[in-house]
Amino acid sequence: MKLQLPVCAGVLFVICLFLMTGAPTLADEGTPTQGVNLFDRSNLVAWCIVPFDAKQRGPEARAEMLARMNLFKFAYDWRAEHISTFDEELETLKRWNIELSAFWFPGALNDEAKTILDVLKRHDVKTELWVSQGFGDVQCTPEEHKQRIDAAVLALRPIVDAAAAIGCKVGLYNHGGWFGEPENQIEIIKALNAPNVGIVYNLHHGHAHLDRFPQLLQAMLPYLYCLNLNGMSKDAEAKGLKIMPIGNGDLDLALLRTIRDSGYKGPIGILGHTMDDAEQTLLDNLDGLEWLVPQLDGAPPKGTRPHFRVGAKEARVEIEDPTRRTALPEFQVIPAAHADSLTPAQPLPANYYATWNRSHGGNHNTRYAPLTQITKANASQLKKVWEYRSGDGPANVQSNPIIVDGVMYAPTSGQHVAAVDATNGNELWRFKPDGQPAFRGLTFWPGAGDLGPRLLFSAGNWLYALDPKTGQLCADFGDHGKVVTGEVRIAPAVFKNAIVVANYLRDVSAYDLATGQPLWTFHTIPHDGEYARDTWTDPEDGANCWGGIALDDQRGIAYVSTGSPKPNFAGNTHTGQNLFANCVIALDALTGKRLWHFQELRHDIWDLDIPAPPMLVSFNWQGRKVDAVAQFTKIGNTLVLDRVTGESLFPIRLRRAPVSTVPGERTWPYQPDIDLPQPFARQQFTLDDVTDRTENAHAHVMKQLANASYGWYQPMIENKPVALYGFHGGAEWTGGCFDPNTGRVYVSSNHVPWIVTLFRPDDVVRDPNAPPTKGQQLYEANCLRCHGPDRYGVGTNPPLQGLNRRLKDDDVRNQIKNGKNLMPSFATLTDEEVNALIEFLFLRDVPESAKRPAATGGVPRFTHNGYPRLSDDEGYPGCKPPYGTLNCIDLASGKLVWQVPLGIYPDLAFWGDDNTGAENFGGPSITAGGVIFCAGAADLKLRAFDADNGAVLWEHDLPFGGYAPPTIYEANGKEYVVIAATGGGKLGTELGDAYVAFALDQN
Known about the structure:
This protein is about 15% helix and about 25% strand. The protein is of the alpha+beta class. It folds into 3 domains: about 40-325, Divalent-metal-dependent TIM barrel enzymes (TIM Barrel); about 340-680 and about 725-750 and about 880-1000, Methanol Dehydrogenase, Chain A (8 Propeller); about 760-860, Cytochrome c-like domain (Cytochrome Bc1 Complex, Chain D, domain 2, Orthogonal Bundle), CATH 1.10.760.10. The strands form 14 sheets. It has an 8-stranded parallel sheet.
């Protein structure tokens, strides 16, 4: 049994010594001691002002600022984006006669560390290298303590030797935990037995030391290189006040007196460490010192405490520091399930795949048709056999139609649900619900006992049940044929008496099939007292299911995939693991009980949802057939999970992720870096990806990237663009298909880069008690539902905060009048109303009497510049092709069997560049004949592919873009392929109102 001690053994010696000699206390007032001018500006070191500077100054501006403030000592902290400016930094400091007092240094002698050493040697600069290590919490056993001492010496020895070789010192930096205890650092220094090692002590990491600070200071004095100040109060860290400017803390005067009277004669650091303007932060600290220092000898304070510029707000919000993260192992692995423990496949009923009675081909979402009339040999002979035009106005439709007994049921562009003869395209009936129906799917239930068949779909906030024969409401269901569910965009799933639906905003619920009465609700963002509530510091938004639900008809398990937490890109207001966002969740369909969950990304701050509907598959795995869930994701992963336990069939490798510089943000330490199944999309933007289509195209993209960051799970940076993949996939809501004969899955994918900038929202805040302006009233009536009451955006709808940073009046006016992508037109608004709305959006209609100051306390809120693509000078993607692909993955091996370009850009193709692929939103469906059908690109084509190798067998122009998966069915002995062709959507092509069907020529 381990004996747990309150502190490590190295602490006990100092405690015992203090008990024997009498513990000193913070110096009392009125006991002046003559000492050096410790707190003069000439002895102050500016620290934490590079990545923590809201103005993101470069070397020249930073040096000019320091010189202007008469600060000529500087400790340099940095992030990866600063490495390329190291030489410039040192040259600039030398020109401005500023001493480089210290250089933040990695905890291991890695490539970055060697780069720093080379730069210092090249410039003949001899300075201190400030280093931190990990090693866990303070508490440990004597055995663990000794092991940690040995490990620290082993890790630090190469750094100490390399520093000595170029005349530099190494300062052990207290950063919390075991390594941050000064007693342990002293023991490490003695074990190293090197003359160039000392201590850098930081008060902001020493809140737990306050009661014994005088003793610690005496113990550290022989080794102390630098002492960094901070505003300090009792219990401040527990109150969220870890970092404050000097003079803002109740203990500051006593601490300064203790430091002065200790005999310490070294440099004193003043701290930036907030994401404010570094100059303002430093001035706050200087003002505090100038107010406190005259009081050290008992003089009364001159005036009141200084009015701090930034210290009372974000100075209290800590910034992540990379040292603890880099001390973690680079990789972790979630082991694969043992083959013997996997769930054996249950035989499916005969002809299970023969019906397409639910969007995506049934409850398993496999989009597989066991039809063989259309083959690889004859697919080139396909002809258009009918075209249905709803005639109720052009609009985007994203629904995969269903076919039952020769009848197609589908939503129309004019917000009806229609029944159409699937052999000729003649309309049989139509029904008009309240709202847009069956946005991404609908379901036919065949009836049982006394309950007749029902056509189930959602529109607005309602779940509807229609008689499929007549199109009339089923009066015995809910409120005369409908029940209130909140907004649902996907096809319901039915198991016994339960209709399972997923709300677009969050949560999954079930309703009684006969009566419409609610049965249960599962909260995808846990409520107080529920499991995983502690994975959110503050539950906000997101974790919604917007791609689809799968249902195991035999086991009664519903499978749900969820999106990321919201708001996107800034997670500082909802830190934690954020369950059940970015998850596949298995629920008991009758009770809503969570059976298991699997989370791909933890604390997703990149909008990398799991968008596609889960797909239920059965295939041969190491000698036997198993039942699994295959889940495609935005970052291009294919998760393969046991259907009953949720365990992964493949090992899941996790890689250490970088930290954030956003105040209050806490990135999750590890994110997925999966080998198998092989990713089908690019997961990290690099300069090697930049387009080389033309010299102008390359130069245009490089100019956008000049001040940008990019890299593996690179967090957003305030006021600095970040380039990345994934907003439109990888995979999208369209998902993929599965061939049960081969065990292969097929998925369409996008490979398009984006460039996003995070910034603070508008400063003007409206008094909620002030009378609303006309523009505000129009916003609340027309825009609030999608963009939220505070204009931060709801779900994936973009924020309208900071609109003036990215759009002009005419841009907004055009979008209001004409719509754009998924935003509808508001053509009914008068010019006067549009102008009033624009005045509201640009904050120009706020009278002085209705203004109030923006909130200054707590964690800051951020917004972003929308979802701008990283494009070249002609609007094409700013990366090398392919821009869109169709992909085949073998589930048994995890190997990517083939990947081919999907779609073309017609103008590029005209000049011979016809193999680029294109951004797409279609999704494939497959037949037993080995033919895959897929559309979705802006070239308006439906194509047939060979399932064995991805070769194009046939293609046909559609009247408008086909932005939904095709349905494959048989009617009167004939095999058909039908697709919604209505254009619009995220690609913004011309809108229409068509469904088009193809079949082989009758002859």
